[in-house]
Amino acid sequence: MSESIFELNMQDDGIAVITIDLPGEAQNVLKPEFGEQVGEILEKLSDDISVKGVIIRSGKAGSFIAGADITVLNSVNTAEEAEEIAKTGQRLFTQLEKFKVPIVAAIDGACLGGGLELALACHGRVASDSPKTKLGLPEVQLGLLPGSGGTQRLPRLVGIPSALDMMLTGKQLFPKQAKKLGLVDEIVPAANLMKAATKRLHDLRKDRSKKKPWTYYLSLAGIKELLLEANPLGRNLVFNQARKTVDSKTKGNYPAPHKIIECVEKGYSQGFDAGLAIEAKNFGQLVVTPEAKALISIFFATTELKKDKGVDADVEAVQVDKVGVLGGGLMGSGIAYVSVDKAGKQVRVKDVSSKGINGALNYSWKIISKKMKRRIISPSDARNTMSYLTGSTDYKGFKDCDMVIEAVFEDLELKHQMVKDVEENCSEKTIFATNTSSIPISKIAEGAKRPEQVVGLHYFSPVEKMPLLEIIKTEKTADWVIATCVALGKEQGKTPIVVNDGAGFYVNRILAPYVNEAGILLSEGVAIETLDKAMVKAGFPVGPITLLDEVGIDVATKVAPILQDAFGDRMEPPKAFSKLLDDDRKGRKNNRGFYQYPAKGKKKQVDESVYHVLGVEPGKEVSSAEIAERGILLMANEAARCLNEGIIRSARDGDVGAIFGIGFPPFHGGPFRYMDKRGVATIVDRLKHYQNLYGERFKPADVLVKMKENQESFY
Q: What is its EC number (predicted)?
């Protein structure tokens, strides 16, 4: 048996403390072999009549149990093997639940997946008020379900609607949210956690556990529970509504949500043990689905990227304490926010007007105050965070900035002036980062005295929500600069990928042919709604026409010529799109685009007048399957070229960049796993099929043709 990660200590008051501490790891994860270790400890405690209660805690500050060890699933070949893994976890937690004395989980830090399932099997739960403490069952994000009793215990603790909401979204709750839901019994400072856990044990021994008084069922919440959960008809309404919501959001692309609903439903209709049985069976079936395999591959890819410095050279990142931001628009404001609130840096914003400065400050305060109102942070924490954010209309306060990030207009002369200003007003060690989405970084670096300290940081809008950071290096960018940007990006809560300089970099380059194809179809008379619905059904978060409105038609039309100049006719945008700017259609930013943007709360509608502007009569019929395949194939084809040309470092980075940057359907695992799954030979054949029908823009990349001949794959 492997070395135990569980340490048992008996206190004088008869309370046994089990401490979990996985050696050599920053976080605790559950492994299948630990069941035997816990079983031995419980057996030992069962024989000791002096034991009055058990506390389970973590030996790692800020981490209870981050979940189960997902690497175990890599060796699973059949649904039956995976089902047995689930049953092993179920048996372990049933042991805890049926133990002779009360067991309390003392939760400090991440309590996720199998960690929360363990806590649910305990008789009580107390949590620290640390911002690192989060509770959730995120298995659905891996295409799986909670397989160790979570689908049965969570609904019985917090109610069916709340449990389904947690499990179907994978959301993670802060301590106060968990307390309000009834997921934990008490929240205390981390220093008082063991004291609170001990008190909770004594309350459980005296049967002082919180039971709902009869008056609760006269309240609105109580009546709702009686109507919706305490009778079969009410439960059916809840489950049917959950299925409708799942279908509307997943478009049938993910099997896990329906399996979760089935587990909860059968657990209530047929009993707890029957619920456990279907949970284990469904878990086993999901593990071997292509959707789960794709989502798990992305989990491993992002885990690897967390340890990746972005360069092969043995260099260390420089400590960044203060960040300068040039431009108080939406991008600059978003960059300032993640630098202050997520990364905890001092930030100085410069804008040409005081209105721009105030806009940037208000942008951050709006987000931070929401967290304060939801009691995620205290008012003093909110004020302290805002104290790190300042602004001015000149370069006063920029001298000690370790990095300056510009987010101004896409104008090369203006950016050259920004480089010059920063080199004059900051230190010789200051990194100059540009947030350009279209201008090659090497051209911007031409205006620098120190081009080795010029780098691209391509954030995606809205910055506080989009997880990707594309770091663009030139031939002259120093390795320490790249490593420093990667480190800062991680602190900002981003998943960074490092790419080589070139027109469109990686993300915009693979996005362009996809959006162009939608534009070509629109120009031929395919309705806007048809195009957007086809791509959403295929798994994209929004359709390509909606995306154009959101990004800005003016921005897209600036990027398009740069890509066409670099790559020729295959990147040529629809000629009719120039008419949109002539009609002052920029998209959502001026409420004039492909869609109308009515008052808040009302559904947006296609602006029918746009067809007249484009000179198009909608009505051409093209199947959703063809629309989706044409768009995805063009994106994948361009991604293959990017890898072959060295724009991206690996297929892994290409998959992560596509999913996190533009919402490539996660259940495919990214464009490279998509090509592997369908087979490179099939991809080449389908591209040639469309090439014969629609022209040279579908010509398969040379690298794909060679891979087909050699029967190769990307992974």
A: 4.2.1.17
Q: What is the pTM of this model?
A: 0.91
The answer to whether residues 361 and 221 belong to one domain is no
Considering the domain architecture, whether residues 67 and 197 belong to the same structural domain is answered as yes
Same domain, 439 and 578: no
- Quote the number of domains for the chain: 3
Share of the chain above pLDDT 70, in %: 96
User: Alpha carbon of 106 to those of 91, 109, 173, 249: distances in Å?
Assistant: 21, 10, 16, 36
Same domain membership, residue 486 and residue 379: yes
**What is the Cα–Cα distance from 675 to 296, expressed in whole angstroms?**
17
Give the closest residue to 68 by CA, choosing from 104, 122, 32. Answer: 32
Q: Is the Cβ–Cβ distance between 30 and 67 less than 8 Å?
A: yes
Q: Output the domain CATH number for residue 433.
A: 3.40.50.720
The C-alpha atoms of residue 451 and residue 459 are separated, in whole angstroms, by 21
Angle, to 10 degrees, between the axis of helix 256-270 and the axis of helix 160-169? 160
Q: Are 340 and 332 in contact (CB under 8 A)?
A: no
Residue 362 lies in a domain: yes
Say yes or no: 464 and 535 in one domain. no
CATH number at residue 106: 3.90.226.10
Task: Find out whether 92 and 39 touch, Cβ atoms under 8 Å.
Answer: yes
* Sequence-ordered alpha helix ranges (H) in 472-551: 479-491, 507-523, 528-537, 544-551
Catalytic one among 262, 423, 470, 638? 470
Question: Is residue 443 situated within a structural domain?
Answer: yes
- Write the CA distances from 622 to 260, 521, 627, integer angstroms: 35, 9, 7
Q: Is 680 left (phi over 0), alpha (psi -120 to 50) or beta?
A: alpha
Q: Which two tokens stand for residue 630?
A: 């044409």
Q: Give percent of the chain with pLDDT exceeding 90.
A: 82
In a domain, 602, yes or no: yes
Rounded Cα distance between 119 and 104, Å, is 8
Write down which residue in 470, 501, 532 finishes a domain. Answer: 501
Query: In which domain, by residue range, is 241 found?
Result: 6-288
Q: What pLDDT score was predicted for residue 511?
A: 97
H or E element that contains 58: strand 53-58
pLDDT of residue 332: 96
Dump the DSSP string for 491-510: HTT-EEEEEE--TTTTHHHH
Bridge partners (DSSP) listed for residue 10: 16
Of 60-74, 660-674, 691-705, least confident by mean pLDDT is 60-74
Whether pLDDT at 1 is above 60: no
Is 250 found in the same domain as 169? yes
**Span 543-587, pLDDT tens digits:** 999 999 998 898 888 888 889 999 999 999 998 888 998 999 999
Q: How far is CA 306 from CA 383, 455, 489, 493, in A?
A: 30, 20, 10, 11
Please give the Cα distance from 667 to 659 (Å, whole number). 10
Q: Flag whether 313 is in a domain.
A: no
Q: How far apart are the C-alpha atoms of 671 and 659, rounded to whole Å? A: 9
Are 272 and 411 contained in the same domain? no
Cβ atoms of 317 and 483 closer than 8 Å: yes
* Tokens at 260, concatenated: 């979760």
* Shared domain check, 495 and 533: no
Tens-digit pLDDT profile for residues 125-156? 999 999 899 999 999 999 999 999 999 999 99
Rounded-to-integer distance, Cα 491 and Cα 579, Å: 43
Which CATH number does the domain housing residue 538 bear?
1.10.1040.50
Of 501, 526, 553, which closes a domain?
501
| Residue 424 designated active-site | no
pLDDT in tens, 484-538: 999 999 999 999 999 999 999 999 999 999 999 999 999 999 999 999 999 999 9
Q: What is the pLDDT of residue 225?
A: 62
Token pair recorded at residue 145? 């379900």
